[in-house]
Each structure stands twice: as structure tokens, then as C-alpha cells.
Input
Amino acid sequence: MPDRPESRFSRRGVITTFAATAGVAAGGALLANGGGTEASPRSTEEGRRTEPFHGAHQPGIATPQQRYALFAAFDLEAVHPVRKRPLTTEQVAANFRTLMEQWTVVAESLMQGRPPRLRPVGSPQAPLDSGIADGLDPSRLTVTFGLGPELFERIGRQRERPHRLRPLPAFRTDRLEDAWSGGELLVQVCADDPQVVSRAFRSLRTRAPGVARLRWSQQGFLGVFGDSTPRNLFGHKDGTANPRLGSAEFDAAVWATPQDEPAWFSGGTYLVFRKIRMDLPKWDTSPAHTQDQAIGRRRDNGAPLSGGHEFTDLDLTRTGPDGKPLIPADSHVALIRDIPMLRRSYNYDYGFQGITEPIVTAPHDDGHADHDHGPGMPKHAGGGHDIYDSGVLFCAYLRDPEEFVRAQRKLAESDRLNDFIRHTGSAVFAVPPGVRPGGHLAAGLFPTR
Output
């Protein structure tokens, strides 16, 4: 979408019962979800460190972006944890519902700065909380939940599956790994303190055994940026073209409506998650001009190469002294312009990954395997690129994941950044609408008890 000052997004600033009793309710009566009003924006009042949990939409989407994030995917258990017998669809559905009820209670408590009110199922003597965040501010904690494409068949709710929820197709440049792809349930935890993030994740995870198992997790961070656009590990600003929070443009790009989705999903959205590994050794030894041409923007101030400031519209027709476009047609920004989405990405840097066994490298389309990036580097799946794991946890919230698919197909064909990046993880989730007081997540899937 066009870059302009008013379009910038402001940045200041599951699982519970044992399958043995599939239908047991969570502690306390939890009412079915219903319509609600939009949560008011976070107060800028000094000392306010909590984000609202209740509202028409889940927190952690239109929330001003926090500094730390954890993403974790779970799969519902298919076998009884004690009897070792396959669970029926009805049992899986009952476990899922109870899971959502308990996770709702836990998330609400944590976001308000209180310890969870429910003990881990099956461990009646276990502490309510790990204690690792005792005395710490909630640090604008948000917890957001998503539902994967395979979930709805697992719980016998195929007719209620959001219409645009389907697995992402394979893209030409993908080098995906099962270790961080897919999932039936997603938990996104964000806060300004990494220890608060860890505490929240542990509180949710300890309520999962017997019902769901962890599939993958990833952690990310952002620099201190105040009102400015955060930078990725390439040093470039990431999210310049985000729609402005509260605008009609934002609502049209992000939120689902009852006109084109099941009624229960109105006010929900979709999350496309991609783990993108950056070849930082190659990037850091490339000329600054090559870097800017790959992005289509200047690294220092984020301005398009066609001139202006960070929020100046791209001018793809403007040429330089050599007669060539100042913004290359195959630059990243030229290819993704006009794609309606909210980028809420995070950097990650896991450092050097010690690998004791060689990894077979997948060939590129030209039939050649990835090359090593330096003398003396072991030949592990691309040498320096693959044994040093850093990059971006790309997160796009949008009303229709097909918009991302359209953009990614273009990028896979000709994006100059493909010389420096590799997509290694991929998932898509439907993010249900928010919760009213007394309700629980995804309650619309179960209108009656």
C-alpha cells in the first residue's frame, strides 16, 4: 500500500483438562462469547503498564507493539493419556473447549498482573504460578490465540471453519522445516519484559499435558524504538507501510466481517507466520548500495530510493542519471506495495547452532546446493547461513491470507532479497474475535453447553 505519514501504525510505547474426562468444565462457570465493543486504546498515562484483555478483538494485534514476543504452536492429543486409546471427535472437541476456557482465565489474570486462578489439571498440589515474575510489572503483556486449518476437522466443526483458512501453498523459494511449521493451535505472547513473556508461556504450557503437546516455539525481540519504526537485523525499518490504527484502511485490511465469514468469526482475523532466516554474513559483506537496491529504501532513514522521507509515496517511474528506475522493479518494496496487511514482526537471533551431523542440503531450482559463505565453514545445509540462525519472525495480520499468497508468489519469483533470505518456517491461523467478561475464546464454536 502507498507509504504516507498518516498510514503509519503507531508503535509506542492450550490447554487444560486430561482427556480422561473430556467433557469436564473448567473451574467456574464461563459464559458463551457474544458481541462486544472495541477496547479503548492503551492509555499513555505514565505508569500504566497493562493492556485490556476484553474487547471486540483479541489483544496483541492492534496493540502498540511490545519489545519481546514468543510464538508457540500446539497440536491436540489424539490418544487418551492413560488408557492409550484413540480419542473420539467428541472427546477431542470437549478437551479443546475446556482448554480454551482455562487458557482464557489464565491469560486474563496474567494480563491484569494477577497470578493464574486455576491450577494445572492433574496436579492439584502444584503451585498456581512459577513465581519467576513475582514483583514484576505486567509490562503490557498480551496473549493472543489462533486456530490452525486442521483443527476444525479434529473437533468436528468443519462447517464453522473460517472461509479463508487453508494451508499456505508451497512457494518456489521455500526451504521449510517441520520443526517450526504448521500447528493446530497458536499462542502469541508479547510484553516489554522477556521474563514476563516466559512466565506467561509457562503458565499456559503447564495446563496442556494430556490435552495438547507443544509442536514448536520461537522467540523474538525489537530494539528500543519509541515512536519510530522498528528495524530488522538487516538494519532497515520494518513496517513503514502499516495502516494507521483505528482507520478505515486498518479495519478493511485486518478484521473479518459477517458478510464473508461465519457469524462467530466476525471481528477475528488471520495470522500468517513465517520464519525467515537471514544470511547476515553475506549481507554484512555486501556494498551498502546493493543492500538499499534490494530493499528499495535507504537504510539510514527508511526513505524510498525515489526520494523524500520514510513515509513518502514510492515513485516507481523516477529514473536516475543512467536512465534506470531509482527503485528497481525487483526490489522488495516494489513487489509488495498495495498489499493490505498489518506487519507485526520480530527479530530473532539464536546465534551459532552447533551441529554434530551433516545435514543434506536441498538443491535450488538450478539444481545446485547452497554454497558455503566462508573459508573453513562446515558444509552443514548451506554453511554459514544455516549454522548461524538469525532473521525475522514475520507476522502479518490480515483479513484474507490470499493477499499474502499473492504477494509471496511475486516475491518468490524475482525479489532481490532472495539472495539473502530463506523461508524455513510457515504457518497460518484464524485468530478468533475478542472475549467479553465472563466469556471464553472461540465460544462461538460451541453456542450451547
